[in-house]
Structure formats: structure tokens, C-alpha cells
Amino acid sequence: MKLTVSRVLADAGALWRRDRDLLVRVAAPFLFLPDYAMKLLLPQPVPGDAPVSLSVAMQAQARFVGDHLLAYLLTAALVQFGIAALFALYTKPDVRGALRRGVSLWPRLMLAGVLVGVPGTLGLLLILPGLLIFGRTILTGPLLAGEPGLGAVAAVWRSVRLTRRNMLGVTALAAVTLLLRAGEMPFDQLDLWLRTLHAPNPVARAVVDAAGAGAAALAQVAACLIAVAAYRGLASRGT
Predict the structure, then answer these.
(1) 198 exposure class (CB count in 10 Å sphere: 0-12, 13-18, 19+)
(2) pTM more than 0.85
(3) Phi, psi of 179 (to 5 degrees)
(4) Is the pLDDT of residue 110 over 70?
């Protein structure tokens, strides 16, 4: 079956309208709050006035991440658990059942994220290869949730096989999800500007950081719903 991008997006929107209450109850504590805490309590360092080379800036960023590695890992783990619970909602359609199912799904989803994320992120340096990698593996999360006992590697390869006749469609869906995830960037830039002021307003920063974390959480939810909709359109038909 050929995948229609507009149909997948429409189906994802229908899932959001139907399940919005359940989705928010999972996303708020596991996607929104950890990211909000990081933005508010551990903001990125403000660059100095003097221009620096890209290598110097990357070294400074690496040092900052290294100094706060535990906080980054904890935040990433909580967010990944939230994503696992979102996928589990479509096998256990209640929050408590999804959280329990998410516990067993979480390690495999994290491993699959590494297997896909490393080559996919490197591929984004050339744009199209990265989009193709993320597109061909878009069904991995729903496959792990919907097919108990399926391992991370097997889920990735099964997604690649299921999307082989829809490379253009899944690549377009990957582009949509990445664009959605870029929605928090204006808020991050505004937060950076607020912190360069002599006396930044803490209330304004709290509002801006909440908006940025909310945009990021909504983008993650949207990415999950797009993946579920694509899975239902392709995997359920074995194509």
C-alpha cells in the first residue's frame, strides 16, 4: 500500500483529538516537566561579546555538557520513558496500563533510539541521508509497542522493510517531525537574549522557558502520533 502523507497527518490529528486527555496526562510529567526544569535551572551558557571560532564554541559546549552530564542523562531517560508510554497508550489505552507497559518497552526504545539516532544525526549534516534514515525507521516505536518480544534491532530492520515502497512518503514525514521539533528554537533564542540583559526578568524567563518546553513536548507527541498513524497504515497491512 502506498503511504499518503496527507492521510497520515490527518489520522495523527484525529488521534490527537480523540486521545488528547490521555496524551497530555503522559506528556506533562515526562516530556514537559524534565525539559522545563533543564531550561529553567540549567540554562545554556551565554556567549561572550568577543567572536570565537566554531571549534572553540564546540569545546565550550562539550565542557558544559560534561559538567552536567548526569542531569542531561536523567532528563533524556525521563523523556524516553514518556515516549515509550505514549506508544504504549495504543496497546494499553489507559494511563496506568501505558506506564506499566512503558517500563518494559523503555530499554528497547532507548537502544533503538541510539541505533537510529547516531547515523541519522550524522546523516542530517547532508540533510537528505538523515531524513531518509529517520523516515525508513519511523515505525520502530509503534512496532516495539505493538509486537511484544520484538527486539530493538529487529524493530529497526522491520521498519526499514515495511517502508521500502514508500521512501518518499516516510522521508517527507521525517522532515515534518524535524520541523515540528524546531518549534522550540525561537523560545530558546529568546531565553538566551533575556539572560544577556543586565537584570533579566525571572518571570519572563519562566514564561518563555515554559513555552519552549511546551513546544518541544507537543512536537514529541506529534512525532509519536505520526509514527502510530503510519504504522497503522503500513504495518497492519504488511506492506
Answers:
(1) exposed
(2) yes
(3) -65, -40
(4) yes
